[in-house]
Amino acid sequence: MTDSPLLPPLLVLLREAIIAAAQGETVRQEPADLRRTDMKATTLLAGQDGTPAGLPPDSLPPDDRMSSLMVGAYPLILGAVTAEHTALDEVRRFANQAAVSRTWLHPEQADNLQVFLVGPLGSDASPFWRDRRSQIERDERICRKLMWLPPEEPVALSQSLDLFLARTFLVRPWTKGNSGLSSQLDSLSAIARTPLKDGLPLALTKEWLDILNRAAEGGEELAAALCATLERNQ
Asked: What's this model's pTM, rounded to 2 decimal places?
């Protein structure tokens, strides 16, 4: 596959970073269901000539500002928002594309649909773009939307992009060592195997570990169970 020569370099950078972070997931580039311009219902109800009623071109993003991926069960629409005076209209177009795409996706895929947007170079330092990002990300109608504001300095792009991806589904701490609940339980297991001269009694540590391993979720019941074991061991 070749990129359009007009596809913004920052959009290409975002797409390639997502592919690299997919960690073994199946990735499909430019899946047809994410590039449709017609609602599924209008296609099924098309006339005898088979022509579906699509949205007008000015309602959808231009091809040279959009890319798309299917990462496992996560459909992603990627888009470049290019200027302050057109930002709201550009975001509206990507939201329209998401609405169209949802009609073609399986229900579980539709629920996972997300839009990742990238602002202009240097937008991370702009109060306008920071406010616009907050507005965009608060609006979860149709699907979740996240926006990367890249810095002006090329040397800071990689770290900025890593921080953006850390806010997405692509960060799965249970697949990495020394992080997440799995790591916490491993640490508790190590404590339970180590006789303690000070601190928590060994019996209490083992009881807490058993409770955490059996717990379906946290909340007040889990806290009460941990406190009850502490009282019994005092």
From this structure: 0.69
Query: In whole angstroms, what is the distance from residue 114 CA to residue 75 CA?
Result: 6
Domain ranges, ordered by start, for the chain: 9-171, 175-232
- 8, 12, 18, 21 alpha-carbon torsion, rounded to 10°: -140
pLDDT one-digit tens code per residue, 131-157: 999 999 999 999 999 999 999 998 899
β-pairing, 114-118 with 74-80? parallel
- Give the contacts of 186 (CB within 8 A, at least 6 positions apart): none
Give Cα 213 to chain centroid, integer Å.
28
The identity of residue 86, as a single letter, is T
Q: How many CB atoms lie within 10 A of CB 234?
A: 7
64 in Cβ contact with 105 (< 8 Å): no
User: In what order do the strands lie in the sheet containing 27-29?
Assistant: 27-29, 66-71, 74-80, 114-118, 144-148
At 221, the amino acid letter reads: E
pLDDT in tens, 165-219: 999 999 865 444 434 444 444 444 444 444 444 455 556 666 666 666 665 545 5
Contact 60, 100 (CB under 8 A): yes
Separation of alpha carbons 118 and 169, rounded Å: 17
Alpha carbon 150 to its chain's center: 17
DSSP codes, 52-80: --BPPGGGS--GGGEEEEEETTEEEEEEE
Is-contact 77 113, C-beta < 8 A? yes
